[in-house]
Amino acid sequence: MTAHDLPAVNATLNGLSSIFLACGFYFIKRGDKTAHRNCMVAALTTSTVFLACYLTYHFTVKAVTHFVEPHWFRPWYLALLISHTILAIVILPLIITTVVFAVKQNFERHKKFARWTWPLWMYVSVTGVLVYLLLYQIYPQK
After folding, report:
1. CATH architecture of 3-138
2. End-to-end CA distance of the chain
């Protein structure tokens, strides 16, 4: 495996994170705190590995991919990418804060933060997969 394989790895990690987030949501709504915790730890782990791979890719591979074709879809792609990027920056301190409250067993504050953290984290994970699919699979750029 080379650094050029990392975008596919990153998309896979984002997809796994989305699955773990969805399962964590499912389990907490049914009152299964242990399964919820396990899913959220798995989501945190896959997201952390994603971040390490993402940074490795962008520090190792100096090429920048621009979405050019098809021209009609470029504004839609850029809107998705910009929202994904901004929320990816915003979500990191929210995830840390939400996890810290859970570890400290301050579940009231954990729950208040999780109401914002979970949907944003899910959005970032899902749109990360979409960005990969659009840029590398559906409309591969030359």
Report:
1. Up-down Bundle (1.20)
2. 22
